[in-house]
């Protein structure tokens, strides 16, 4: 079991981060399941880097909140290799093409970025930077720490509960191999542990708000994917992570 979890974490680093793992790893059912189960741990790593960077910039420099916001967005994109922003842009191109399902899926598979993808990408990057700048001085390091973890717990739930929109592709391959029941149970357990940690370090009210936001955004996004694409793809997973993180940062403006 420990070896499988270790392999799963290395696979998570290999596929979902910029951290190089120069090793041929097995990709059987147990390893793919472990890879997705380790995504919140990857979020924990990202959250540690982000929270540490914010603490360092706030305590040791006179940088403006806007520059700190820029640093947070840039560090997050570097850690993930821009994977989620790329998915957001592709999903925007596909959805705003107003074509049928098959053409939308084909557009998402096109490596080129279109006008709608560019506009949504710019709006997401600039908007996220401004939102973080507005809340960065008041928000606690604990909440900065949990943002990447929450988004990946949501991703774990979305992956394990939603059918693939395509029969081919890497995300479809992973969905065919993974043990969805184990991943659903993992998502519930990790969510409970994380919320308990948030209550311990902040308030019950904060934890309830985060839980409500994650549940509502998960339900709405899943329904949107099923209605427009009849399932999910790798790009839609990436768009979900980015969207949830922006939503959580927005919530800090009103509830922190």
Provide a descriptive summary of the structure in words.
With 256 residues, the chain is mostly helical. Helices cover 80% and strands 0% of the residues. The protein has twelve helices and no strands. The protein has helices spanning 2-16, 29-37, 39-60, 65-80, 83-95, 101-109, 115-135, 141-161, 170-177, 180-201, 204-229, 234-255. The chain is globular and about 50 Å long. The chain starts with a helix and ends with a helix.
Task: Write a compact overview of the structure shown.
The chain is mainly alpha-helical. The chain has twelve helices and no strands.
Ordered list of secondary-structure elements with their pairings:
Layout: H1 2-16, H2 29-37, H3 39-60, H4 65-80, H5 83-95, H6 101-109, H7 115-135, H8 141-161, H9 170-177, H10 180-201, H11 204-229, H12 234-255
Helix pairs in contact: 1-2, 3-4, 3-8, 4-7, 5-6, 5-7, 5-12, 7-12, 8-10, 8-11, 8-12, 10-11, 11-12
Question: Keyphrases for this structure?
Answer:
single chain, 256 residues, mainly alpha, 12 helices, 0% strand
Shape: globular
Largest sheet: none
Radius of gyration: 18 Å
Contiguous helical run count: 12
Distance between the termini: 40 Å
SSE order: HHHHHHHHHHHH
Average predicted local confidence, pLDDT: 92
- What is the structural class? mainly alpha
Strand content: under 5%
Helix content: over 70%
| Unreliable sequence segments | none
Task: Tell me the number of strands.
Answer: 0
């Amino acid at each position: 079991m420990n070896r499988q979890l270790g392999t799963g974490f290395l696979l998570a680093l290999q596929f979902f981060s910029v951290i190089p793992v120069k090793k041929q790893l097995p990709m059987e059912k147990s390893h793919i399941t472990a890879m997705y189960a380790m995504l919140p741990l990857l979020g924990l790593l990202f959250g540690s880097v982000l929270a540490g960077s914010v603490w360092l910039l706030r305590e040791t420099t006179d940088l403006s909140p806007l520059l700190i916001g820029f640093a947070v967005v840039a560090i997050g994109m570097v850690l993930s290799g821009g994977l989620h922003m790329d998915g957001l842009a592709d999903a925007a191109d596909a959805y705003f093409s107003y074509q049928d399902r098959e053409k939308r899926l084909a557009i998402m598979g096109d490596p080129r970025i279109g006008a709608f993808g560019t506009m949504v990408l710019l709006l997401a990057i600039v908007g996220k930077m401004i939102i973080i700048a507005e809340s960065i001085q008041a928000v606690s390091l604990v909440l900065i720490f949990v943002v990447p973890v929450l988004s990946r717990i949501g991703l774990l739930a979305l992956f394990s509960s939603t059918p693939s929109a395509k029969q081919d592709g890497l995300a479809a391959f992973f969905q065919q191999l993974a043990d969805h029941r184990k991943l659903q149970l993992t998502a519930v357990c990790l969510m409970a542990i994380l919320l308990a940690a948030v209550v311990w370090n902040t308030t019950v009210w904060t934890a309830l708000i985060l839980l409500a936001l994650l549940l509502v955004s998960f339900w709405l996004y899943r329904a949107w994917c099923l209605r427009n694409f009849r399932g999910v793809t790798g790009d839609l997973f990436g768009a979900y992570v980015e969207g949830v993180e922006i939503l959580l940062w927005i919530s800090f403006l009103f509830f922190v």
